[in-house]
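INFO batch 0412 | record 1 of 1 | parsing
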Amino acid sequence: MTTSSTEPQERAGLPLWAVIAAAGLIVGTTAGLRQVVGLYLPPVTKSLGVGVEPFSTSMAVANLMWGVGGVVAGAVADRYGAGRVTLLGLIAIIVGYYILYTAQTGPDLMWSGISLGVGVGACGISVMVGVVGRAAPPARRTAAIAALGMASGIGNFVAFPYTHLLMEAMGWRGSILAVMATLALLLPCVWLVSGKPRPMAGVKPQAFGEAFREAFRLPSYWLLVVGYSVCGFHVAFYSVHLPAYIASLGLPTSVAVWALTAVGVANIIGTYIAGQSSRYIEKRLALTIIYLARCFVFLGLLYLPPDGPTIVVLSSILGLFWLATIPLTSGLVATFFGTAWLSMLFGFVLLSHQAGSFVGVWLAGVLFDMTKSYDAMWWISIGLSLFAALLHWPIRERPVARIAAEA
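INFO prediction complete | emitting C-alpha cells
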C-alpha cells in the first residue's frame, strides 16, 4: 500500500511558526515585488516607445512560465527538498529585474518576463504550500497554508507603496536596483525551508507517475484545475492593468497605488477568514461564494462613478476574495491526495491559474489597444466568475479511495 503522508522535513528542531514565517516571508516578498511590475507599465512603455501590448505580452508569458515552473519546481521540492529550487528561484527573479533594468526593446521585455516567471514558479506559493503543508499537522494545515496567502497580502500592502516611493525618489530604473537588493535579503530564509521530505517509516512512497495518474482520474481535481484558471485571469488582469485603467480615466497614479494597496490589506483579512472557514463549511462551497462575490465588484467598476474613492473601495472588496482561494484550493488537493506530492499537484492546479493569468494580461492589452477601453474585460471577468462558481459547486470533497483506506 502507498501513501501520501510524510513526516516533517529534515530541518529538524524548527517549530512550525519558524517554517511558516520563513515561507511566508519568501512568498510575501516575491509575490509583492512580482505584482508591482504593473507600476512599471506606463514609464517603461513610454521610455522604450512601445505600446501596451508588448509589455502585457511579456507579463502574460511571465505568468505562464510561473505556472510551468511551479509544476517542475514542485516535483523537485517534493522529492529532494525546497532549498535548492528556492535559491535558484530567487536568483532568477533578480536576473529578470536586471533585464528589465537594461531593456531597450520589446524582446528584452519578453526575456525579463520569462526569467521573472521561472523565478516565482521556483520559490513561490506552490513550493511553499508543500513546505508548510508537510510541516503542519492535518488539523492545522488549512490555517497554516492560509498564513501564506496572508503573507502575500502583506507583501502587496508593503510592496506597492514601497516601490512607488522608490520610483518617485530614484526613477523607474533606479528603483529596480533597490528591488533587486531587497530580493537578495531573502537568501538566508532558504536554509529555513530546506530539507528533504521523508516518507513515513515502513510505507512505500507513491511514485511521480502514480501521483499524476491518480490525480488525473479524479473528476473533482479537474473541476478544481479548470476553475482556478478564472482566479488567475482576474488577479493578473487587475494587478497588471489597473494602473493603465486608472490612467485611461485621467486619474493620478497614486489612485492605482492606493487601490492595489487596499487589495493587499483586505486580502490579509479575507485569506484569514478563508483559512478558518473550513471548520464550518466545505471548501468547495467557500470557493463558490468567492467567485460569485467577484461579479459584484466588476459590475461596480462598470456602473459606479469612476473616481478615486470608488475604485479604492471596490478594490478593498475585491481584496477580501483575492488570494482567499489559496488555502481552500490547496486544502482540497491535500484532502484528495495527501501531502507527499502536494507541491507538484497544487503546482499543476497553479499552472491552470497561470494559464488564466496569461490570457487575462494578454487579452486586456489587445482589447485596450483596439478599443481604448477596459469595459469588455470587466464583462468577460463577470462571465468567468459565474462559470467558476458553477464549476466548484459539484466538487466532491473527500479523499481518494487509497487515502480513505489508509485512514
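INFO post-check: The chain has a mean pLDDT of 86.
INFO record closed
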